[in-house]
């Protein structure tokens, strides 16, 4: 029993003499946010004109003494269109996501917020 306790004390003393270390990875928490603002303005103006003027005068004998009436026809058509348009749009988008980043893990490099591997021994996994 005495030998066992001496051995245990010796192991404890050796454990205190040997330096200890740990590879701890710093962790940062964030909440990145993306904002997007967009706007458009449209102005449109159109003008259209259309006219149709018709006239018919039939008087082959020139006078009404021969008993033939003179035939006359006339028509006027017209159209005028003017259109003005104005439109304005605004779009606002925001997107946020929680991200956890751990860095300095031996053999793995950086973990990005989505768990993707960073540069491992000069090889890029992404």
Please give a structural write-up.
With 126 residues, the protein is mainly beta. The protein has one domain. It is 13% helix and 56% strand. The protein is built from 1 helix and 7 strands; from the N terminus they run αβββββββ. Strands 1-4-5 form a 3-stranded antiparallel beta sheet, with no helix packed on it. The longest helix has 16 residues, at 2-17.
Give a short overview.
The protein has one helix at 2-17; strands at 27-30, 33-58, 71-96, 99-105, 109-111, 119-120, 123-124.
Keywords:
three-stranded antiparallel beta sheet, two-stranded antiparallel sheet, rod-shaped, 126 residues, mainly beta, 1 helix
Query: Mean pLDDT, as a whole number?
Result: 75
Number of domains: 1
Shape: rod-shaped
The fraction of residues assigned to DSSP E strands is: over 45%
> In terms of per-residue confidence, which ranges show pLDDT below 50 for 5 or more consecutive residues?
109-126
* Termini separation: 59 Å
Taking the sheet with the most strands, its summary is:
3 strands, antiparallel
- The helix content, as a percent range, equals 10-25%
Structural class given helices, strands, pairing? mainly beta
Count of helical segments?
A: 1
Number-wise, the strands total: 7
What radius of gyration results from the CA coordinates? Answer: 47 Å
Strand neighbour order, sheet with most strands: 1-4-5
What is the H/E string? HEEEEEEE
